[in-house]
Structures are given as structure tokens and as C-alpha cells.
Amino acid sequence: MIQQDAAPKPRRNVELALLILALAVGIGASAMVDLNSETPFDNDFWFQSSLLVVAALSFHVVLRLRAKYADPVILPIVVALNGLGLALIHRMDGPGSDTGNNQLRWTLIAVAVAVTAIWLLKDHRILRRFTFISLAASAILLVLPLIPFISAGEVLGARVWIQIGSMTFQPGEIAKITLAIFFAGYLSSNRDLILLAGRKIGPMQFPRFRDMGPMVTAWLVSIGVLVFQRDLGSSVLFFGLFIVMIYVATSRISWVVIGLALILGGGFVASRIFPHVAFRLDSWWNAFTPEVYGRSPGGSGQIVQGLFGMADGGLVGTGIGLGRPDLVPFANSDMIIALIGEELGLIGLFAVVLLYLLLFTRGFRAALGTRDAFGKLLACGLSFALALQCFVVIGGVTRLIPLTGLTTPFLAAGGSSLLANWIIVGLLLMISHSARSPIDTTPMPDAPTEAVKQP
Amino acid sequence: MNQSIRSAWLAAVAMFALIFGAISYVQVIGADDLNDNPWNQRAVFADYCKDRGAIIVGGKPIAESVPGDDTCNFQRKYTQPELYAGITGYFSRNYGASGLEQELRDELAGSSDQLFLDRISQVFLGKQAKGASVELTLDPEIQKLAYDLIPEGRRGSIVVNNPKTGEILAMVSKPSYDPNLIATHDVAKEKASYEELNQVPGINLNQSVSGPTGALLAPGSVFKLIDTAAALNSGKYNKDSELPNPASMPLPGSTASLPNYAGGNCYTRTTADFAFALEQSCNTPFASIALNLGQNAIAEQARKFGFGQDFGEQLKLQSAVSVFPEDLDDAALAQSAVGQRDVKATPLQIALMTAAIANDGVQMKPNLIKTVRAPDLRVISEPQPEVLRNSTSAAIARQITEWMTGVVSKGIGGGAAIPGVEVAGKTGTAQLGDSGLNNSWFTGFAPANDPQVAVTIVIEGVDVTTGAQLTSPNAKKIFEAVLNK
Questions:
Q1: Taking the model in full, what pTM does it have?
Q2: Within an 8 Å CB–CB cutoff, is residue A21 touching chain B?
Q3: Does ipTM come in above 0.85?
């Protein structure tokens, strides 16, 4: 357990100062975009900027009231990323397209949901009661896009969207959170059992076969997502989330070994059986061969154009509004990292990646600090998922690994992703609040009922 | 549990270390390769919106970048579009560039190595990079005169050059076009214009397939100057040699025959000396020279005048390569010796041949560029006259010059004669099949004893009379305009 300060400080004023800095980043970027438009600094600009300010400050005020010991760095980082994302999405908007306004709308919704969650939950430990409800919710969320009437069908090769009226939503983003809650609840209850039983082979202790149940479940979920939704990125993300959580729960490296073996085996088989996986691998490895470059769909044109953009940006970038990200498909969503590399340069992109690094580090810090196993597992899982998601997206754009369809947290255009990630931020803030607040020796007002069925 | 949380954090940090590495590779280490990739259009687009340097003739821009009214900051504009289209070429987003716009891309865009320091200072001053301007050797008055001398609707080219320096004073062709139509930022208009212009035969969209540098034409009788040089150079002939001059000569190994030109005075003699044969442009004497010397001697002399060489690099205009064919049978050799059949030359090639004769047999490198200046007007490069090769000896060149003055003073090139000035010249009429139409040529220089200017005119697809009217008399007008300056 980490030594707490003698008298923990809320540090809300530090947060406010950083928040002003973060808002300056987002609104400054937005101003640079606006300068290039036909009517600079019109009402729209001021209206949008003030909405962002109001959202950020409301969140801050709620933290003062409900979670005053929460980590002071997390919210400013997220506001900076979200603000920068809004500016860049707005920058890519042509005449008649208002992806920027849509993103702003979703930002406000997401902030409202996260704030409400903090206000109502007060304490993250309450979520432990919903362990198996979360599992059921995850299953429903993942199956939704496959149900005929609400499915939005196959969009760009993946079946991950649902449509209600004119609104589309990606339930898999929320499933990321519910799965993390389930794993955290299940593992915190059963970790002793999993830890003690097992057979030792060589230096490693392997779990009993019956304890592999959750692992097999997670593996099946991941493969199911890959097969039925054709979403390689989410599949990797869910499985990575589970492996890290079971590793943290048991401290056994054997779980990681088994997990990696399963994912590599599954991936190998998938690349043989499913053409969409094979295409992804091919357009990564052979991106610069003419047949692959020109192939449509499933070609490498998108990734190669993104690389051209980033190379053009070089060290310092072309400057916001001065590059040619319009040459890159999906520059405001899947490829927004390439847009940042092009217009803000290596320096700007490093700054953004450092923000992510700081963000997940603060998440891990909350995991270290909090006292309950559930909170530790949840914070750790969510933080690692965030890091893994960044790695998969940025690694894909820079051709380090095959490109998959994950979104860049807080930056990329897309409401579901924004909502899910703001909820994650809300949870991390709550956990960090419990980690940093003075030790409360009184019993929880509403003690967990432990209505968990043992396997 | 905290120990494994730290390990998980380390794993996440390790992933981010890989990301930092990958970003550094793409944006710095491997960036040059990516920027040079042929699929990468960013360089084209970057140039496209740039403040490119102007192309200047006689102190006035003929192509310049003016502030644009769309997302591009600058729009390329051609001030006398048709007159200079064959030189400037066009600068388009979707069709690339041609002409000087293409060949001087680095200078005009400011990306040449010599402009490196300018680029650095522009970056620090926060100014948008500006390209170098290029001033041409062209004389705007001569260019205009030459352009107007080709009637609208005719296809033809005129090259006016300085034999002593290699400078091009005028280079025009018709039909011409308006490069503004293709340089427009209106994509639909650009496409429509390009496709429409591409349908017009002979239009000079690409300097390597049409116009003075690209049109490969049968040179006709102007090729006899090369036969003459080859003959004198061989030692088998001298200035007094008598050549057989039958009215018609059977072509060896075929049933056809090669006749002399019916309209002149060739029929008056059965043998002829060089002077008469050139003045009247008789065919059979030159065919007999070629058969006597063999094709290698003729081909070698043609090479010395520039056949087989690409002048594109020197002129900064894409050019076609003039050909004297190989492996000819005797019939083909006889016909090629009088500039028919498979021998093909560009108007520029004929102009350079004539310039070499005018300059005592020394061929100068053709040059279109007077100065290249950085945005601060500092001179970056200023090409100096350069010897390309010795095409023939000075003695032979002077001898041919003497005979060429006879062509103008006594022979069929009389239309080019100027009172008080000795003009040297040679005409050519290359038949285009049995159509009755010809490529009508005049090439010559003045004054013969101290050549200041060479003029080469070709009008394609005309009857003999029209061709005669549009060549020698027009050459006279250009000679007078240049010499009276």
C-alpha cells in the first residue's frame, strides 16, 4: 500500500488551473481552424467554445462537491484531448457537413452522463453488486448489432452498429466498460480460489482447468466479436482487457502466456478462415505493393495516404489548416492520428501521445492507491484498455501493426466512443477519489451484499 | 496485487515506447522515402498552390502566380497564353505540368538546392515560400511577329535563333491553345478543356510530340545541306565537282524512280555543280552523292548536326529526337538523301543545323534561359554560350554558306532576299504521300558574312505555291525585324 500524505489535499485548484490550460489548447486550436474559414469568429465559434467551457467547468464543480480528492490531472488531460479533437473534426468539415457539431453534441451528452454517474454512484464499490448484471449487459450489447431490426447492417465491413431512428450507436464501446466491471467483480471474489489451486509445470504454475472458465468465456467473446461482427480491433481489446485483469488478480505470468497463446492461435486460424482478417494482414505487410495499394475494398490506400501525410508533416507539421489531410480517407475518425502528425508534426503528435501516457498512468496510480481489490482491478483494467486501444490505433496508423477499426479515445469523431470513454474517466475519477481521500474507517453505508454465486 | 499493477503499467509504457518509435520512423527517419514515393501527390499539390516564380520575357511576366480565390493561395496565370503556350506549357493539378513549368519545376517552386537558404529564412520569417523567377532569351517582338506570320488555321512552326550564342529569340507554333484553361482550379472545367484540347491534332500540349521541339517532319530538300557537308568532308568531292543531274533516276531494286523538281530549272543541265544543284534544289545529284558515299557517311554527318540527340535537357523543353534511319537499301537511301521517306527532323533540329553552318561549323548549345533569379532578385544562374560540337570544318561551313547565298540571290529561295544584306538560305518541299500537299521549309541566316540570326520556318500540309508564299518571304520579314533592331 502506498504511503498516503499525512493530510491528503483535494488539489481541486490545481485542477482548475490545468483545466484553463486545457481549454486554451482546445479553443486555441479551434480558433486557428476558424481563422481559415470564410467567416472567422462568428457566433458559432463563440457558442461552441462556451459550451465546451461550461461542460468542463460543470464537471469540475461536480468533482468539488462529490469527489473532491479525485486526481486533479485526469480531467484537464481529457478536456484537452476532447477539445483538440473537436477543433480537428471541425477543420475537416466541408460545406454542408457538421460532424464537428455532432461531436460537440456527443461531448455534452457524454460529460452529462459521466457527471451523473459520479453524482449518483458516489462510490465505485457499489458497481461490484452488478457483476453478473454487467455480464448479461455485455452479452446483450455485443449481440445487439446482429439483431435484424435494430442492426445498422454492415458498415465498412464490420457489423458493430445499431440504428434507432436516424441515430447510430456502437454498443461494443459500452461493452468494454461492462466487461471490465464483470471481470473486476468476478476476479476480486474468486482470485483466492484461482490462486491457490493449480498444477506446477516447470517454473510456472498453471491454473486448474475448471478455473479457466472465465478465460474461455473471454476468449469466446473475442472470437465471437471477430467472427460475427468482423471487428478485429475490439476483439483484441476485449481479450487484452481480460488478460491484464486476470494477471493483476493472480500475479501469475502463466495467464499471460496462455492468453497470448490463445490469441495468437485464434488470430492465425482467423487469418486463414476469414478473408477480412487476411486482408488486414496483407494490407499491413504488403502495403506498398501496387495490387494491395489499389485493391478496393481492403486495400492499403488509406494507411499509405496516412503515412504520406505524417511524412509530409515531419518534425513541426504544416500547421493547422495548412496540410492536405483531405487526401487521407477518414481523416477525422480512424485516421485522426495521421491528421495530427501531418498538421502538428512529430512534436504535436508526441504531445498528444504523452497526454495519453499521463492519462493511463494516472489511472494505474489510482489502482495502486485504492484499497479494495475490485477498485484496483477495475482501474487497472480500464487504464490498460485505454493504453491498448491507443496502441492498436496509433500502431495501426504508423504501420507498426495491422490497422484495425478502433477509435482514438476522445479525439476521433464518433459518439459511442466518446460516451464510453467519458464514463471510463468518470469511473477512474471516482476510484482515484477513494484512493486519495483520507482513510474512512466507518463502514460503508450500504455494504456490499456479496450476492455472488461461487462457481 | 500492486506489484502486478506496476508490471501491467510497464507493459503499457512499453507499448507506448513502440508507438514513439514508430512515429519517429514515419515522420523523421523514413519521411524522405515516403515523400519521394511516386504515389505521393502531396508535392504536386504543394507546388500547385504555391507562389511560383514568374516566367519573364522582355521584362514582363508571361506566366505568374496571382492570389487565388479558393482554398489555394495562388493561381497560375498566363498573360499571353496562345503566344507562349509552346514554351511555358501548362501547370495543372490533375494533368501535371508541361513545358518550362515542368522542366523548371524546382526553380519555379523554390525547391531547388540553390534556393535552400531562402527557404530556411522564409520559414523563420513565417512567410510562405516563394519560387525563383526565370527570364527567357526570347524577344517579345520577334516572337509576336513570328506567331502572326503563321496564318490562323495553318499548322506550322518557326524557330529564330542566334547562331553565335545558341540563344533562342523566338519559337512559335500553331495551332496553339490557352494554358489558363488547364491551369484553372475549377476541376470540371480543367478536365473538359484538357480532353477537348487533346482532340485537336497538332496542338502543342506536350512539347515532345508537337511544335518546334516535338514535331517530327520530313525535312525535304533542307537535308541536302547535310549531303553537301558529308560530300565535302569525304574528300571525294570538292567545290568544283560536277555531279550527274539526270531528270529522273531509277531507284535501285525497285520500279519507282526519283525525279527532279519539275518547277525549277534543273532540266536545263544534265550535270550540275553544287552551286547549281543547291540553287535549283535538284534531287538526283544528291541521291547520287548518297549512293556513292554510302549511308554511314550521311548518317554520321546527320549525327554531327544533332540527329539522334535529345535537346530537351539543354533547352529545358521536352523534345523529340530527329532520326536518320539505319539499314537502308539503296532506294531508301536515295530518297532519304533528299529528306523524304523515313528521315524525320524537328524544326528545332533544322534550326540548329543551320546555326552550325552559320557559325563556321561550330554548333552552339541551344538556350532559352537568360537568368534565374531568387525572390530577392539575386541571380542564381545565368547560362553562358556553350559549344556543343564541331559539326563540320570552318572551310566547309563557309563553302556551304556561299552556296546558300546563291539559293537566295539566284535560286528558288529568292523570296528571302533583302536589299543590301547577304542572306543565306535553303528551301525544302517534302511531299506528303500522293496528296499533293507538302511540308514547306525555309531555313537560313543573315548577314551571310557575319550571321546575327537564323530563321527556320516550316508550314505543314500546304500546296507548293502557298508553301512558297509562307516560308521565304516570311523569313525575310523576320530577318529585317531582327537586323533593324
A1: 0.65
A2: no
A3: yes
